[in-house]
């Protein structure tokens, strides 16, 4: 095994910038706001921030529609604010990872404005076109609009591809000019001092050359009953990833993290490259779709480990800006909080890099947003069918119990969850028994024990099917993690003697195993071999 890279030992924290901290009272979070909360992030113990897009954008998909890849949208501040944020974060040992949206641009990007003006424009070939006709060329769908992904462009008598909204036209990644334009954008930000990119829709860059229709798949309900074999996940993406990896490597220790769009861990695993020469990490979203079950998570992790190519490093996440928060997914009345602690212990002790989504450390949850307050295009188009869209997981960070939750002194762009009055950072910071304190303790333990980062993992059998148990070991350090997913107490018999380091339902350090450990209902115990 070669030398370790910083991202393998890091705890990442995802910030959705509209919702983290507003500094100027317009109700939308901004870069200066993030900078003002660096002290908090440092005390939480995170090592790197992935910040969702804050580039110039008409905000049709809230920043995932970029009209200038090299500048900050005035809503979020100026380039100088970013410079300041990067420098201050660096001073605290926190790295910054940007979100590169290279599958598509905004329809207001000058590249697309030029491309759509005429078939002979030099940028026309940067995007994907078909001649217009009475029907679209295939069954590909615009995910957020519930219609065809092929949108009319009367000026050229063609249709262009936009898999998200019509305002997000997609690039032709077979065009070398497009590729080199994005590699230049990457170099620009590396020179600026950022530590890497999360690559939006990375496995979608290439579409089928013959534009074949996706096959029908009865199980793929949120995917319009289609298996996405032709509109994304084309093998050509490997070539682009190799090129991007070279650009990153030339800039030093920078990380590329792929949103390997979809729920297929095999595709995510393959994105690391057979020779480990593609993405440094690729998101496997499988944990986001697992039920509350020890067996389900163990199976998911084992599959993920077994699929990863030799030398590739795993990562795990439970929540992000596109899926209902896990606090809400695993809600179970007054047991919800206990479950959140078990989930946190798993995320922060399982072998791989953890990604925390802002607010999960205080147990932020989802709730239905009234129709008039919906902002997400997906939420708006699916409202009549009763789907939630993605606004519920994007509500403002709950900093304190004051009006606006300490997020804004203005009117927040999305309603703050009313539970902010009691569920907020200020209240939990004071309380050693809070969920926030639990996250801090887990992160601190992770930092102090090599086995929890670089150590190997061995799942333990014979502990009962409700308990997820594993050992992490490095050198002579040996730690066991016992996670009881059941609503009843469980007893785990152990051969060796252990001392409890952390427990979500016991006093830390107070317990030793004498042949066994008792697990409270829905609780986590982390213990070290004596
Ligand atoms: C990714 C992002 C999502 C965005 C979409 C289009 O899936 O995570 O938020 O809407 O890409 O860019």
Could you explain the architecture of this structure?
The chain is α/β, with parallel strands linked by helices and 530 residues long. The chain contains 15 helices and 22 strands. The strands form six sheets. An eight-stranded parallel sheet has the order 13-12-11-5-2-1-15-14. Strands 16-17-18-22-20 form a five-stranded antiparallel sheet. The protein has a three-stranded antiparallel sheet with strand order 6-10-9, with no helix packed on it. Strand 16 and strand 17 form a beta hairpin. The relative contact order is 0.10. Residues 61, 64, 101, 164, 200-201, 259, 261, 321-322 line the site of alpha-D-glucopyranose (GLC).
What ranges have pLDDT less than 50 throughout 5 or more consecutive residues? none
Mean pLDDT: 96
State the assembly state of the protein chains: single chain
| Count of distinct strands | 22
Number of helices: 15
Which of globular, elongated, flat, extended, rod-shaped describes the shape?
globular
Ligand types: alpha-D-glucopyranose
Q: What percent of residues adopt helix (DSSP H or I)? A: 25-40%
**Strand coverage percent:** 15-25%
* Overall SS class: alpha/beta
Strand order, main sheet: write it out.
Answer: 13-12-11-5-2-1-15-14
Radius of gyration: 23 Å
Largest sheet: 8 strands, parallel
* N→C terminal distance: 28 Å
Features:
single chain, 530 residues, alpha/beta, 8-stranded parallel sheet, 5-stranded antiparallel sheet, 15 helices, 22 strands, 26% helix, globular, binds alpha-D-glucopyranose
